[in-house]
Write a structure and sequence with these properties.
By secondary structure, the chain is an alpha+beta fold. It has a six-stranded mixed β-sheet with strand order 1-2-3-4-5-6. Strand 3 and strand 4 form a beta hairpin. It contains four helices and six strands. It has one domain: 3-Layer(aba) Sandwich (Aminopeptidase), CATH 3.40.630.
Length: 146
């Protein structure tokens, strides 16, 4: 997939991603992934659908989807560099990411955000329909009682 909007280009071609820039954004600027190593970024990208937003050949945004390709997807690591924000680019990227999942007839897409709710609502997301059905665990903590 490749789409253009004015000087911007959005693609899901993994070979075009600027991994050092993506690593810098995620490790140094994105609150949810501070300190993520280059190895972790590269491994996560290999295991996911990736989307890059470019302006004049320079990567200015990134998004990632974890999915089984059939029933479920988790949208994550959506980042637009500060100088390219407030132009609707994040909404455009997220909307196209969801459209790509719709092509596979994915039934459910989830995400988590601390502060970008309006961006995701503009792209069609809403709060959990049945939050009482969802649980979480931090597997790095020994919290299981057997």
């Amino acid at each position: 997939m490749e789409e253009r909007r004015g000087p911007f280009m959005l693609t899901d071609d993994a070979s075009r991603m600027d991994v050092p820039a993506i690593h810098r954004w995620l490790a140094e600027e994105a609150y949810w992934s501070l300190g993520r190593s280059l190895d972790e970024v590269e491994a996560s990208m290999r295991q996911s659908l990736v989307f890059g937003l470019f302006a004049d050949g320079k990567q200015v945004g990134f998004g990632r989807v974890i999915t089984d390709g059939v029933t479920f997807a988790y949208l994550c690591d959506v980042f637009v560099e500060p100088g390219s924000r407030s132009q609707g680019l994040g909404t455009w990227m997220v909307t196209r990411m969801v459209a790509k999942l719709r092509e596979s007839n994915i039934k459910q897409v989830l995400l988590a955000t601390r502060d970008a709710h309006q961006l995701y609502i503009r792209a069609g997301f809403h709060t959990l329909t049945r939050p009482e059905r969802w649980l979480e665990i931090d597997p790095t903590k020994n919290s299981a009682v057997l």
